[in-house]
Design goal:
It is a single chain. The radius of gyration is 20 Å and the shape is globular. It starts with 11 loop residues before the first strand and ends with a helix. With 313 residues, it is α+β, with helices and mostly antiparallel strands. It has 8 helices and 20 strands. It has helices at residues 30-41, 121-136, 167-176, 221-224, 256-266, 269-272, 277-290, 307-312; strands at residues 12-18, 21-27, 57-63, 75-78, 84-87, 92-95, 99-104, 107-112, 141-143, 145-149, 156-160, 181-183, 187-192, 195-200, 205-209, 212-219, 232-233, 235-243, 250-254, 292-298. It has 2 domains: 12-138, no CATH class; 142-312, P-loop containing nucleotide triphosphate hydrolases (Rossmann fold, 3-Layer(aba) Sandwich). Helix 5 crosses helix 7 (277-290). Residues 1-8 have low confidence and may be disordered.
């Protein structure tokens, strides 16, 4: 992710690039700008020192004061993990408690009614919503999944499941066995010459501390484990992971139709964001056709060193 700071202005301005899309980020509050810079440093965005073209995406962050009023004539529905979405078709608003996001024509405005703390989850949530919504309008679609790279075939292995299903734990076990990685939590899907590619969105791993489930340990696998980060990979396998009380981990093959159902369930914005639902759903359909899919019922034997890698080799 490339950054250009303009220190002699009241607003901070930065440029970031991902998969050929150029983002322009502006904040009217320098303290908020510092928080955004720290947050973005953990996302896999490539630096561009001096952009030679106009940005594709513009996102502006505001802080302090009342959140803007949302028009009353919009459709409203609940979104995952709390919050409401208000939509009128091409643009929409997100109400996230102390934050609000407005998406319109590939650009976004993000408001916080007060300066969020460094660990305040609303900061990452609002910023992620804004960035991902804007990227969707340029052919990059998010997927809540971990992504690893098979050391033999070099194909991507995508581990899909809700929070707490074991995605990061399985990704960690594979990284410890030397598998290259994309991300342990969120990926971006795009089309490249007729093939679906996946790339990591977050660069670090965040693994829940078994001694205190409220906290996660964050680290870069390439620095901590020697596992190599890959920019992108062509997915070949989908693993829909869930926790199991059985003694041994089990794999069960899924058909293409069932795989597509699971993908839609894992990507709610493929239907929430109606303005670009058609291309989003088409990429999910291509992903289902391109890959072999399995249910993975995860047991404690996955924690045995080398077991996960041997199971999937």
């Amino acid at each position: 992710m490339e950054v250009i700071q303009v220190s002699d202005r009241p607003a901070s301005q930065s440029f970031y690039e991902v998969a050929g899309r150029l983002l322009f980020i502006e904040s009217v509050d320098l303290q908020l700008a510092d928080l955004i810079d720290r947050l973005f440093a953990g996302w896999q965005l490539a630096p561009v020192s001096l952009p030679d073209r106009s940005p594709d995406i513009r996102i502006r962050f505001y802080c302090g004061g009342a959140l803007p009023e949302i028009p009353h004539n919009l459709d409203r529905f609940e979104i995952a993990e709390g919050g409401q979405c208000y939509t009128g078709g091409a643009d929409y608003y997100l109400a996230l408690g102390n934050a609000s996001v407005h998406i319109e024509n590939g650009s976004a405005n993000v408001w916080f009614n007060k300066l969020p703390g460094v660990r305040d989850p609303v900061l990452a949530r609002a910023a992620s919503f804004a960035v991902c919504a804007a990227l969707r309008r340029y052919g990059l679609f998010e997927l809540h999944a971990a992504g690893m790279v098979h050391p033999g075939s070099e194909n991507g292995v995508l581990i899909i499941g809700p929070s707490g299903s074991g995605k990061s734990t399985l990704a960690l076990q594979l990284a410890m066995a030397g598998w290259p990685y994309l991300s342990d939590d969120e990926l971006l899907r795009s089309l490249n010459e007729g093939t679906i590619e996946a790339r990591g969105f977050r660069s670090f791993f965040a693994v829940r501390d078994e001694s205190n489930g409220e906290f996660k340990t964050c680290f870069e696998p390439d620095a901590a484990l020697g596992s190599k980060r890959r920019l992108s990979a062509v997915p070949g396998v989908l693993l829909f992971i869930s926790l199991s009380s059985e003694e041994t981990t089990q794999l069960k093959r899924l058909g293409q139709a069932e795989s597509m159902k699971r993908l839609i369930r894992a990507c709610p914005w493929a239907t929430y964001d109606t303005a670009i639902a058609a291309p989003n759903l088409e990429l999910l359909s291509m992903l289902a056709r391109q890959t072999s899919a399995f249910d993975l019922f995860a047991s404690r034997d996955l924690l045995t060193p080398g077991f996960a890698s041997n199971l999937l080799i």
